[in-house]
Amino acid sequence: MRIIVISDTHGSYSAIENVFLRNTDADWFFHLGDGERELDRFIIANPMFSQKIIHVAGNCDYNSLSHDVFTLPVMNCKILATHGHMHGVKSSLEPLKKLASENGCNIVLYGHTHERFMSYENGIYIMNPGSASCPRDCKPSSFGHIDITPDGVVMNIADVTPLK
Q: What is the pLDDT of residue 164?
């Protein structure tokens, strides 16, 4: 099972298009907030993606009807996705790890900081894919991908490259 994770596109339709159209074989696409308008525009232009996209509301997704936290069981895993602004991710990941444990999740996805991060701690995989359009960590724009198999979980963060 392949999952693509993107966050913090902040108005960049091309960032979503570059990532999603290069990964059409993915089973799920998670958008971790701050990009709902361009995500909606992408879904209208590419309706075949609509059943494969999960979106959580970010602090800049004004008047969003999306959830702050979303959980999804996938194979032998359970994923928790949130933007992170309601959980203090800029200062500590402890509240987020506690929320994951309380919900029986072993994969946590968050955004908000615009900085890439991956970790495996106490049985929980943690990923922030960074920002697909405006990173704050002096690295290129990025997105994440997760492969889940019966043998385990593999996560990676990749640079966003323009479509040609």
A: 66
- CATH code given to domain 2-159: 3.60.21.10
According to the model, what pLDDT value does residue 161 have?
86
One-letter identity of residue 147: D
- pLDDT confidence tier of residue 162, bands split at 50, 70 and 90: confident
> In sequence order, which residues have a C-beta less than 8 Å from that of residue 98 and are 6 or more positions away?
none
Whole-model pTM? 0.96
Mean pLDDT confidence for 121-136:
96
Residue type, 114: H
CB-based contact 59:112 (threshold 8 Å) = yes
The strand pair at 77-82 and 69-74 is best described as: antiparallel
Q: Where are the alpha helices (DSSP H) in the chain?
A: 13-22, 36-45, 94-102
Residue 105, CA distances (Å) to 13, 68, 101, 156 in order = 31, 16, 6, 19
Between CA 108 and CA 115 the distance in angstroms is 15
